Amino acid sequence: MNVFGPNRLATRTVVAGLAVCTAAVMAFPFIFMLSVSLKSVTDANSLRQSILPSIPPAFDNYIFIWKMIDFPRLFMNSAMVATVDTGFSVAFAFVAGYGFARYRFPGKRIIFTALLATMMIPGHMNLIAKYVQIVRWPLVGGNDILGRGGSGFVDTYFALIVPSLASVFMVFFFRQHFYSVPKDLEDAAKIDGCGATRMLSMVLIPISTAALGAMTVLQFLGSWNQYLWPLIVVNSKELHTIPLGLARLAGRDYAQMIAPESLAGTVIAMVPSLALLFAFGKLFIRQGIAIGGLKG
Amino acid sequence: MTGYLLIAPEVVLFVVFNALPIVFSVYLGFSRWPDMTRLPEWAGLTNFRRALSDPLVRMGFRNSLYYVVLFVPGVVGFSLFLAILANAGLKGQNALRTLFFLPEVTSVTIVAIVWYYIYAPGYGALDRFLSTFGHPGRMWLNDPKTFMPAISVMSIWKNSGQRMLLFIAGLQAIPSTFHEAAIIDGASAWQRFRYVTVPLLLPVLSFVVIITSIQAFQVFAEVQLMTPSAIPDHAQVIMFWVYREAFRYFRFGYAAAVSLYLFALIFIFTALQRLYFGRRVEVY
User: Of all helices (H) and strands (E), which one includes residue B31?
Assistant: First the structure.
């Protein structure tokens, strides 16, 4: 995309300079995080410090925070919730998108419009009711048939995973995706006697890898980083996901927490997100731009 | 028919966990539920009337509105800026885009912790930076005047990535012929931006502004994580009020009613924005 007019070299240099400055600003909090996490406590509190970590780097901070916060458990919970959530929600949305795109059945338009309508309802509207659903689910967690008495699905993986499974956005996205896939392949397969299951698994999945990949990463990250909903439905530390587990280090009662150690905690917690971004970043960014193209 | 089977899992989940809660939320707004072992009791408009005169509710809406006014223009402008930079065809553009996107994939808790220490009085990064110029530091997070702006800056940093991608898509959709024609006519970069880019970007722009506003009204985590447990007045956004009312005090009916007010506010705001943008979107 050519934004440069005449004076290409001059414009280019200015833009490049701007890009470098912006990159520095955007990267600064991460650099700060890394640097302070490796400082000794005295260095971190002093009013005159450099950007560099202490010499020698204070790896103790990492050991301390690792002992204080059960990272393996946090990672495991987050990973499990995110994987299960992503696996099912992408699968359901993919299949449903196919159904909406290629099949005709009475009521299809009404159902789809109803789905779309709720996309416009802000998420907060559901929160209270969803919580009540979880707490008062019949015959679970000490509840009787009318859902009274116990605590239902509170503090369970079910509560963390299931309510967010239905993703109207993904259904919409996959429907669009199927609209852009030429029918020839499917028609050929149908002539060979392919039913829906075979069609999906043998024909459609292989050609939809980019769309599937992008949605998977998106959904996984969304689930991984969820904060408010887990905060509401989970009380016990055993089920904390990473955002919840770290929240103890955040604004809450700062006086007790110390910068280098807290920041060491954040560095540890960032590793999975970083890994994901570097592994799948290009695919994801490219598809993110493609999604943006749909909105225009 | 197979069609029904295909959409069944999704629709069932949707009805149970999306549609039903919405209906129930509306119902709750009109009810009182003091005793959770019984069914909620009908309370008509009591909750709604009470909320209108509740100073905490008013304060909540004020704070959230303040955030919206600071955050939405900031994040839209900044992410557009990032998009232009990351779409200019410079070398290492992919790396640039990835970097700009990194805060988006970072958990909000992590972001809050890091930025807390940036804003910390005295030894925080911002204060130390200012002290090299002889500027006194401030209690960025404790001072009501600077709290929301500080939160907004952090939030803009974190949330620009996704919008940047949408804008890149929008920028790429503008045929370069328009730009080239403008250059031939002697337009400066700024003029090109104003008269070519922005008008052609309007569909994407309006979409981003609208969904950003909807999200911004519901701000919770960014604020709650940056304040101590005894949340000061200037930090009490409306979603925090709802959260506390519903999940600490268990006053579900009242909280649901205020949620409905918030929904109405968002709806009106969005409708006004659509009206504003509707007049200017050009279709080509």
Answer: strand B31-32
